[in-house]
């Protein structure tokens, strides 16, 4: 039985709640100090540019100023878990070249965009379509409801990356349901044809719900989803250091400790068995 937080414990979280509100409003205290330093650098660069522009024949007309204050100290780009999982699963799909590929809830500006470069992809999401996108066909559908007949055993290739952990937490407008992830998983499995492949990723570590952001599943829980009529063909993880480890032996003793992860990512490619006796 899960532990319910007491009223006292909830009251002690008031500071954390305030931080969450400030963070979600786009206010980051650590960025404020960096922005103040950045403003001094910006002012110096601005003065230097204006002075140099007086003698330059190539300076453009001065337009509205748009100070960028944080980028001098940032890396060239972010290569985090989303980037690594999107790249890996897109490669797997490219190599397998399925007749049809459907995605449920993965990032439009990440994985879906990568796949759409080399093939058509259909996308299912509970949220409205953002806009028309080349090579992307959008369907608005809530998989926690009964699956329409046309979506049963509809595809030989289905992906659902960093999505199943959100089902039933209300974060994206879905109804609250503690069993939402299992209902969603059941629907995903029904969508795959016998012989087809389901690509799934989700947070992995000591099992918990971090409401309302996501759930974190134990490694053995994730692999237990693919028994009976399913066979795990690929298993990769992204560990707490952000390192992609593939292949990973999902049957090894390390799975009991979630491969050393507190908040890692498991990436599974599982095939639906054609004939199950």
Structure described in brief:
The chain is of the alpha/beta class and 277 residues long.
Instruction: Please state roughly what percent of the residues sit in beta strands, choosing from under 5%, 5-15%, 15-25%, 25-35%, 35-45% or over 45%.
Output: 15-25%
Could you spell the SSE succession in H and E letters? HHHHEHEEEHEEEHEEE
The percent range for helix content is 25-40%
| CATH architecture assignment of the largest domain | 3-Layer(aba) Sandwich
**CA-based gyration radius:** 23 Å
User: What's the average pLDDT?
Assistant: 90
Key structural traits:
eight-stranded mixed β-sheet; Rossmann fold; globular; 2 domains; 277 residues; two-stranded antiparallel sheet; 7 helices; alpha/beta
Overview of the molecule:
- The protein is an alpha/beta fold.
- It folds into 2 domains: 74 residues, no CATH class; 192 residues, Vaccinia Virus protein VP39 (Rossmann fold, 3-Layer(aba) Sandwich), CATH 3.40.50.
- Helix content is 31%, strand content 21%.
- The strands form 2 sheets. Strands 3-2-1-4-5-10-8-9 form an 8-stranded mixed beta sheet. A two-stranded antiparallel sheet has the order 6-7.
- Strand 6 and strand 7 form a beta hairpin.
- Helix 4 packs parallel to helix 5.
- The longest helix has 25 residues.
- The model has no long low-confidence stretch (mean pLDDT 90).
